[in-house]
Design a protein that fits this description.
Elements: E1 8-15, H1 22-33, E2 38-41, H2 50-58, E3 62-65, H3 78-93, E4 101-102, H4 111-119, E5 124-125, E6 130-131, H5 140-150, E7 156-160, H6 170-179, E8 182-184, H7 187-197
Length: 198
């Protein structure tokens, strides 16, 4: 179990799921070590993996909106952009989930979109501070070593649970960071802490 007295807080996030095998393995690792993560889900994957999303929610992980079909928001008209968010909201609502966070696909969003998404839909838009680069062709040990050398308190780490390399080496990542005094928290918890510290 993690040391909840630690001030070294870090948020691991996983985009593009849920995935039938990888997301389940991540949840198993989280349960084994007593840690919580944030999953940014793609709406059109929810119906095929309802039980996985329900497990994420019931086990205390945070679930964020990552759009319905993962388009580049910079190329979308306002109507389509709104539909991408609202359809995912509706699919999550059926499972009792009301997300507070939105991560735009590819991290790309216009200032106009940012304005109405935060103002009208009441989302916090969240990117990341460290990219695991798990989407590139590289060995899991390379991902782990690079992240362990660069992880600092307050970081938001980007993974993708559709890539197997994100899963391989995760136990080593978690064990090493816990041994170093880190506490794994959800993104909202991290942001709330940072806000209170100001």
């Amino acid at each position: 179990m993690q040391d909840t007295q630690s001030g070294l807080k870090i948020a691991f996030t996983f985009d593009d799921g849920p995935h039938a095998q990888n997301t389940v393995e991540l949840l198993n690792v989280a349960a084994e070590y007593g840690v919580r993560w944030t999953f940014f889900v793609v709406g059109n994957r929810i119906a095929r993996h309802r039980s996985i999303v329900q497990r994420q929610f019931l086990e205390g992980h945070e679930i964020g909106n990552h759009s319905w079909s993962h388009p580049d928001f910079l190329g979308l008209d306002p109507g389509r952009a709104r539909m991408e968010l609202e359809q995912t909201d509706a699919a999550l609502a059926e499972l009792g989930v009301k997300p507070r966070l939105f991560r735009p696909p590819y991290g790309r969003i216009s200032s106009d979109q940012r304005g109405w998404i935060t103002r009208e839909l009441k989302y916090k838009i969240v990117l990341w501070t460290i990219d695991s680069l798990d989407w590139q062709s590289q060995p899991p040990t390379g991902v782990v070593n690079r992240l362990l050398s660069s992880s600092r308190p307050g970081e938001i780490v980007l993974y993708h649970d559709i890539h197997t390399v994100a899963i391989q080496g995760m136990r080593r990542m978690v064990e090493s960071l816990l041994a170093g005094g880190f506490e794994f928290v959800t993104v909202s918890e991290l942001l709330d802490d940072l806000h209170q510290a100001k």
